[in-house]
Amino acid sequence: MTDDIIIQEAIRLVEEGMSVTFPVKGNSMLPFIIGGRESVILQKCSQPKVGDVVLARVEGCRYVVHRIICVDSEQVVLMGDGNSAGVEHCGISDVKALATHVVGADGRQHDLYTKERMLAARIWGWLCPIRRYILGVYRRVAKFDH
Question: What tens digit of pLDDT does each residue of 14-30 get?
Answer without folding.
Answer: 999 999 999 999 989 99
